[in-house]
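Q: How do we represent a protein-ligand complex in a form that can be generated token by token?
A: Start from the inputs.
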Amino acid sequence: MIISASILAANLLEIGADLKRVKSLGVQRIHLDVMDNHYVPNLSFGLGFCQALKSQQPLPVEVHLMTQPVESTVVQALDAQADWIIFHPETTKSDYHKIVELIRSGGSRVGLALHPNLSLEWLDQVTCQIDQLLVMTVVPGFSGQSFMDHSLNRIKAARRWIDQTQTACELAVDGGVGPNNLLAIADCGVDVAVIGSALFSGDIQQNTLNIKHAMDSDAIY
Ligand code: DX5
Ligand code: ZN
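Then emit the structure tokens for the protein with zinc ion bound:
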């Protein structure tokens, strides 16, 4: 299981140094939450920030789009050379398959994000190739929320869907992830743990040690 650092909870004035620090934990990716104050009740980063991250530090960037309609931000994310572009299928104006194709033909990897309110039966009609399935374990919009209790069952069901359909995509979880639930999440067959406040809130050094300890205790890597 790898860690993707969600920088929504980070101190932006210190972001360069803090990214170097969490990289020493073994963080392999940056997770950038793009929010529009419409699909979710919060505003966050524009895609210019993705461009800056891509040009000034070495980690790949996954962009999590929480914008509706999503179309124009997908184009901006492609222009910003996001390595992964993850979107919520209900945010498209038309058929979400067109967005999948747009991202793929633009050279980025594509992820589908599942809002906690979206029934997993929705997955039964997905036939296109995707690179990531992102199970939201909080209601999207803010960092620092608690992991929703029933999420482990949804994560397991998402894992089953990937295995049964032999979809060559990674399984990611986002929201309320930290040392207390990393083992349980890894046991569900998760490939990517998105971690925000458990990494960036408070003492980053201590946070990284706590996460490293939680991961080392079961040799998750
Ligand atoms: C929530 C965002 C998450 C959030 C994670 O809408 O998509 O990526 O930043 O933050 P934590 O880990 O604090 O829940
Ligand atoms: Zn996110």
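Residues 6, 31, 33, 64, 174, 194 surround zinc ion (ligand 2) (CB under 6 Å). Residues 2-215 form a domain with the TIM Barrel fold (CATH 3.20.20.70).
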